[in-house]
From TrEMBL, chain A:
PROSITE patterns: ABC_TM1 (PS50928)
SUPFAM superfamilies for this protein: MetI-like
Signal peptide coordinates: none
Subcellular location: Cell membrane
Protein name (Swiss-Prot/TrEMBL): Peptide/nickel transport system permease protein
Organism taxonomic ancestry: Bacteria, Pseudomonadati, Pseudomonadota, Alphaproteobacteria, Hyphomicrobiales
TrEMBL record, chain B:
Topology class, membrane: Multi-pass membrane protein
InterPro entries: BP-dependent_transpt_permease (IPR050366), MetI-like (IPR000515), MetI-like_sf (IPR035906), OppC_N (IPR025966), Quinoprotein_ADH-like_sf (IPR011047), WD40/YVTN_repeat-like_dom_sf (IPR015943)
Localization per record: Cell membrane
Family of the protein in this entry: Belongs to the binding-protein-dependent transport system permease family.
Any one biological process term the GO annotation gives: peptide transport
Record-given protein name: ABC-type dipeptide/oligopeptide/nickel transport system, permease component
Species lineage: Bacteria, Pseudomonadati, Pseudomonadota, Alphaproteobacteria, Hyphomicrobiales
Length: 325, 579
């Protein structure tokens, strides 16, 4: 199989996965919530209005018709109306997704920019005290739940020292005409600092340890021996020869992590009152806002699958050894 | 044959763990935490769900903030027994008495313990014109403090004496819980004379004060008021205009009078001879003591931290730093002091010898909660991991061994699983079904078996081509036999590695769900403690509330990670050469 066919096949697989998840999601919801409008009755909806809502979701039609309608709408990016916000779900989701990604991508990049060189350095100093401390710290931040480190961070920097804002993306009230207007201010960066640190510390462990372990494997390769034999300085061997070859697993991990980040970290957004997609899905669950919950989940799944696909494409480009089976 | 092969494959990882120092530490820490979970009832100092109450000799003073706002501020405690009553000495000081024979003098140097040899509950104190203090209490206790010397006075009966007030420098009136009215005469040797009550039905008399005209007024149960005239040596019924039990009475030198009682009742008399008027108060819980000045300004205190002040127009609830139960007011010169406190809910107490990790917003012991929290964490951690291994290993074995269409279907399923983000999936499960331990374990295990399945399959793929498998097949072994008796023992070390990692993942997952308030209700878990802390809003000050649970989670997961790290040598033999 050649490369093009492999990529096409891989893309079709991704699409199929998304389709299966959407289907599962639909039937899971119909099974768990046969009549989602029951949640609306508490809001004082009259039976006639309720019937209208039922019709707009096609709930009065047979199950297979509902399913087709759901798929049709999902493909067109129309996720219906949020019960809670009384606004189109799609608009809400895109905005929240942007907020989430700004925080997560920043934090993950920070973690990798620090973690990768640090991991390489630890592998060079393997067996020393620095190595042990590094591994210990990496695993420790990985083991500490983010909602806890976030709370501690707020307690120390927000409450006790009082110099970092602890909630939201901007100081309220603010006006911004659009996403980029909102995030291109110093105030935003100030709000971004604490959550970024907390998330980055959590993610720091994986590039650190992966880089260290792969470097240790690469050290055993013949070309390193060769470089040594040539009399190259250890630093050059470390960063020019070994590190480049050890980068691949780290890059893979980076893409997978970013993919999962779209919906992966509800707790951070909750702790820092960050108006992201994760917090939105939690609110949707709390308010039984099923169109919003359903759509948020689908968007997250799509994100994860896309990033996984990109990883594979990337991998096949970077490493010609990957066979297209 | 079959048992040794399993044991042998299980022994290898164990040896690896024991040869790594970090892993041994991890194993030791994990054992401690498991022991903690098993012995939780023995280790916990309190029932984790019980609201803890505490008694305390509490002192609050009235302070003005920078913005002029009034705040009744908590002062250092005087001891472990509640203060029941206080009286001022007219020179900027006073004496407070309380349960278990506690007596304190307040003066320029602050509070000094001047207790005498008794442990009965003291209910009232009165300081006479010549500075003598008369103290009364349970079991007919009467004692006089002259200078620094205590003299006990024999009582006619062991009655519960509730209140005392001086008539003049030598005589005082004492009232009791069963309508005792005793006249104490200190002209020479103390003499106690019982005065006949005009009611005689055994009603409790709770307070007594000297009125502006020299007569004595006592109040008590059912709004009863009795006036004793020292000149006629007779007691007569008076009226306050309320049916509620009255707890406190204060009369200013010019005749302003205030009586307070149950259900937030406050009745007031503007001057001698005027009518008593019931006033509206902002709270309907019991008031225990009141104070009124010559100009009519008044303060009353009661249970649950209630302090109300009358600003000339109406009663207003004042902010107090504590919700303790007040029993007495001491107006010592310019200092206004509220005293208590009976058993009150010990909310948000900092760590102490009684509560090692402090208490939460409902007064529950946090140390015990943390100890019990280990149970849910480990239960979900191990049960979830076990389920994951069961699914993952079997899927991996079957897919790797049979290959073909079976493998395609199973591995495509795994691919789909990789597209599902964990936390949102768990949230959706909880939205659709009720939060419970089962849902938490299901959410954890339904999504984590994917990694295990992939790993095991790749191992099985190479194992199935090995000579020993072929030999077994030639010998006529069935597929099941080959899979579970020949191949499985060889992937066991890998299973152990994954098991260790997934225990850690499960514990964090459970804590995350509980933190979001989606954990099993009515159960205590580390994540749940943090959820409560966040919900109550008090975590920003109560550091003892949110530090320990996270520390426990981190320690447990870290110890599991340490163990799994040593097992990585199995999965990746190339690392072995580098050690």
């Amino acid at each position: 199989m050649n490369r093009r066919n492999y990529l096409i096949r891989r893309a079709l697989q991704a699409l199929a996965s998304l389709f299966v998840i959407a289907t599962l999601l639909f039937f899971l919801f119909r099974w768990g919530l046969p009549d989602p409008t029951t949640a609306l009755v508490a809001d004082g909806l009259s039976p006639e209005q309720r019937e209208l809502v039922r019709q707009s979701f096609g709930l009065d039609q047979p199950l297979w018709r509902q399913y087709l309608l759901f798929l049709q709408n999902a493909v067109q990016g129309d996720f219906g109306f949020s019960f809670h916000y009384r606004a189109p779900v799609a608009d809400i989701i895109w905005e929240r997704l942007g907020n989430t990604m700004v925080l997560m991508v920043t934090a993950i990049l920070v973690a990798y920019i620090i973690g990768v060189p640090l991991g390489a350095w630890l592998s060079w100093r393997r067996g020393t005290r620095a190595d042990t401390v590094g591994i210990f710290a990496g695993l420790m931040f990985r083991s500490a739940p983010m909602f806890w480190t976030g709370m501690i961070g707020i307690l120390v920097f927000g409450v006790m020292l009082g110099f970092l804002p602890t909630s939201g993306m901007r100081t309220l009230p603010y006006e911004a005409s659009g996403f980029f207007d909102k995030i291109t201010t110093v105030d935003f960066l100030w709000h971004l600092t604490l959550p970024t640190i907390v998330v980055a510390l959590y993610y720091l462990g994986s590039p650190l340890l992966i880089m260290r372990n792969t470097m240790l494997e690469v050290y055993g390769e013949d070309f390193i021996e060769m470089a040594r034999a040539k009399g190259l300085p250890e630093r050059t061997i470390l960063y020019k020869h070994a590190a480049r070859n050890a980068l691949l697993p780290v890059v893979t991990q980076l893409a997978v992590t970013i993919g999962l980040a779209a919906g992966g970290q509800v707790v951070v957004e909750v702790v820092f009152s960050w108006p992201g997609l994760g917090r939105e899905i939690l609110n949707a669950v709390r308010t039984s806002d099923f169109p919003l919950a359903q759509a948020s989940f689908l968007v997250m799944a799509a994100f994860v699958i896309t990033l996984n696909l990109l990883v594979d494409i990337f991998y096949s480009t970077l490493d010609p050894r990957v066979s297209f089976k | 044959m079959m048992i040794p092969s399993y044991i042998k494959s299980a022994a290898k990882p164990l040896r690896l763990v024991l040869s790594d120092r970090l892993a041994v530490i991890g194993l030791a820490v994990l054992s401690v935490i498991i022991a903690m979970a098993l012995a939780a009832p023995l280790l916990s100092t309190h029932d984790p769900n019980v609201v803890n109450e505490v008694e305390d000799a509490s002192v609050l003073t009235r302070q003005l903030g920078e913005d002029g706002a009034v705040l009744w501020t908590l002062e250092p405690s005087l001891g472990e027994y509640a203060i029941q009553a206080a009286d001022e000495d007219g020179a900027g000081g006073g004496i407070a008495v309380g349960r278990h024979g506690s007596v304190f003098r307040y003066g320029p140097d602050g509070w000094i313990n001047i207790g005498f040899d008794t442990d009965v509950d003291l209910n009232s104190v009165a300081i006479g014109p010549d500075g003598r203090a008369l103290v009364v209490g349970a079991n007919g206790t009467i004692a006089v403090l002259t200078g620094n010397d205590w003299t006990k006075v024999d009582a006619p009966s062991p009655a519960e004496l509730r209140a005392v007030a001086w008539i003049d420098a030598e005589t005082a009136l004492i009232v009791g819980a069963t309508e005792e009215i005793w006249l104490a005469d200190f002209t020479s040797a103390p003499i106690i004379t019982e005065i006949k009550s005009p009611v005689g039905r055994g009603f409790a008399l709770n307070a007594v004060q000297r009125d502006a005209d020299g007569t004595m007024l006592a109040v008590g149960a059912r709004g009863l008021a009795i006036r004793y005239d020292p000149a006629k040596k007779q007691a007569a019924i008076d009226r306050l205009g309320t049916q509620r039990e009255m707890n406190g009475l204060h009369i200013s030198p010019n005749g302003h009078a205030l009586a307070v009682g149950e259900r937030g009742v406050a009745v007031r008399r503007a001057a001698m001879g005027e009518r008593w008027v019931e006033e509206e108060t902002p709270d309907t819980r019991a008031l225990r003591a009141g104070w009124v000045g010559d100009n009519g300004s008044a303060i009353a205190v009661g249970r649950n931290g209630i302090i109300i002040e009358h600003d000339g127009a109406a009663w207003q609830r004042m902010p107090a730093e504590s919700e303790r139960h007040f029993r007495a007011l001491l107006v010592a010169g310019d200092t206004l002091i509220a005293l208590g406190s009976d058993r009150f809910v010990n909310r948000l107490a900092a760590p102490s010898s009684a509560h090692w990790f402090g208490t939460d917003h409902l007064g529950r012991d946090l140390f015990s909660q943390n100890v019990y929290g280990s149970r849910i964490a480990l239960l979900v951690g191990f049960l979830g991991a076990l389920l994951v291994m069961l699914i993952g290993t079997n899927v991996g074995l079957v897919a790797g061994y049979f290959r073909g269409r079976t493998e395609t279907v199973l591995m495509r399923t795994v691919d789909v699983m990789y597209g599902i983000p964990f936390e949102p999936f768990a949230l959706i499960l909880v939205l659709l079904f009720e939060p419970s331990l089962t849902i938490v374990i299901l959410a954890v295990s339904l999504l984590t078996w994917r990694t295990v399945a992939r790993l095991i399959r790749s191992q099985v793929l190479s194992l199935r081509e090995r000579p020993f498998v072929k030999a077994a097949r030639v010998a006529g072994a069935s597929d099941l036999r080959i899979m579970y008796l020949h191949i499985f023992p060889n992937v066991m070390p890998l299973v152990f590695l994954e098991l260790a990692i997934i225990v850690g993942v499960s514990i964090i997952a459970e804590a995350t769900l509980s933190f979001l308030g989606l954990g099993p209700p009515q159960s205590i878990s580390w994540g749940g403690i943090l959820h409560n802390a966040r919900l109550s809003g008090a975590w920003r000050t109560a550091w003892w509330w949110n530090l320990p649970p996270g520390f426990f989670i981190m320690t447990t997961v870290l110890s599991v990670f340490f163990i799994s790290r040593s097992l990585e040598l199995i999965a990746n033999p190339r690392l072995r050469a580098r050690q």
